[in-house]
Amino acid sequence: VAELRVALTFDAEHPSRPHCPPGVTERILSILSEADARATFFLQGRWATAYPATARSIAQAGHVVGNHSHHHGLFSSLIPERIGDDLARAEDVIREAAGAEPRPWFRFPFGDGEDSTEIAEALRTAGYRHVGWHVDPNDWDDARSAEDVAGAVLEGVRAQGDGAVVLLHGWPASTALALPTIVSGLRWEGARLVGIDELDTLPSTSSPRSY
Ligand SMILES: [Zn+2]
Question: How far apart are the CA of 26 and the centre of ligand 1, in A?
Fold first, then answer.
């Protein structure tokens, strides 16, 4: 039987929607813990500052912690020096809040900047590599139900196979609602839920592109 490793990744950031229920990230953490599943969380620096206890529980649960920038802006609009500043600022507060080392894991906000060699160089200089994704169920879109999200994840993983990296977010209510179905569905197909540090190859681009 071929191995099927799947990395669920959650971008933990201030929501891009005005009305989001509180406590979704905590619900995600307890579902993962009950299922004994490991995942990866890319923390926005400003989010980690606002929710240091949640940031710490992520690290303490043994999940991989990465850097998702401090301001969550478009990296293609920043000059290289500002990129270094933003990364360093996020890194400091993530270490402080979560008590974990985010290097070398990084994810561009919106996947923006991954096509630029200049930005890639600034990222490398700061000690990071961008982790893209293979499967994007668009869980940020509040028109998407939990069933939509779970269905898109299972279908996307089936299409990608071993090493699939799935993009999810830490704040949509539908993500927490979909997660038990995602975990049990993936395991039913024989998947092992792993952190990105357990995969041999990682996507350096984000396909399909999120908004
Ligand atoms: Zn983000």
Answer: 18
Determine phi and psi for 65, rounding to 5 degrees: -110, 130
Q: Identify the CA nearest to 196 among candidates 54, 58, 6.
A: 6
Give distance in angstroms: CA of 13 to centre of ligand 1: 6
Q: Residue 42 is inside which H or E element, if any?
A: strand 40-43
Rounded to the nearest whole angstrom, what is the distance from the C-alpha of residue 172 to the centroid of ligand 1? 12
Query: Residue 2 is encoded by which pair of tokens?
Result: 């071929």
- What is the pLDDT tens value at each position of the chain, 211 positions in all? 789 999 999 999 998 777 788 899 999 999 999 999 999 999 999 999 999 999 999 999 999 999 999 999 999 999 888 999 999 999 999 999 999 999 999 999 999 998 899 999 999 999 999 999 999 999 999 999 999 999 999 999 999 999 999 999 999 999 999 999 999 999 999 999 999 999 999 988 776 555 4
The closest alpha carbon to 124, from 140, 104, 144, 141, belongs to 104
* pTM recorded for the entire structure: 0.96
Ligand 1 midpoint to CA 48 (Å)? 13
- Residue 6 and residue 166 in contact, taking contact as beta carbons nearer than 8 Å: yes
Mode of pairing for the β-strands spanning 40-43 and 64-67: parallel
